[in-house]
């Protein structure tokens, strides 16, 4: 059987979106659980609705969630990189400092 070659349109579309669409890094807080959650998205309102409707397994137990901070990035890919860097620190103190200052210091 002959090998089929070519580009994957879905993969190409995701790559294009990650390059041209603005992304956001956000921090939400659950008073119920006294926990923060860091994420990234292209639409903050939709993403918060997903968290508060129970669609996200990891945040379901903390409903309701409220936005404490968000930061607009030049691209979705950049937002995901910043999200990963913040999560890697595993520090509530850093999250609270970001919320207090309303800025992300890039030397996390």
TrEMBL record:
One Pfam family assigned to this protein is GIY-YIG
- Occurrences of domain GIY-YIG (ranges): 21-97
InterPro entries xref list: GIY-YIG_endonuc, GIY-YIG_endonuc_sf, UPF0213_domain
The record's PROSITE patterns line, in alphabetical order, gives: GIY_YIG
Question: Which family does the similarity line name?
Answer: Belongs to the UPF0213 family.
For this entry, the protein name equals GIY-YIG domain-containing protein
Q: Which organism is it from?
A: Candidatus Magasanikbacteria bacterium CG_4_10_14_0_2_um_filter_37_12
């Amino acid at each position: 059987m002959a090998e089929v070659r070519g580009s994957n349109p879905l993969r190409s579309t995701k790559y294009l979106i990650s390059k041209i669409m603005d992304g956001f890094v956000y921090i939400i807080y659950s008073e119920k659980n006294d926990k923060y959650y860091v994420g990234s998205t292209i639409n903050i309102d939709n993403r918060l609705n997903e968290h508060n409707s129970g669609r996200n397994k990891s945040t379901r137990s903390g409903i309701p969630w409220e936005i404490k901070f968000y930061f607009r990035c030049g691209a979705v890919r950049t937002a995901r990189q910043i999200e990963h860097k913040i999560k890697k620190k595993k520090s509530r103190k850093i999250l609270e400092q970001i919320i207090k200052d309303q800025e992300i210091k890039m030397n996390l």
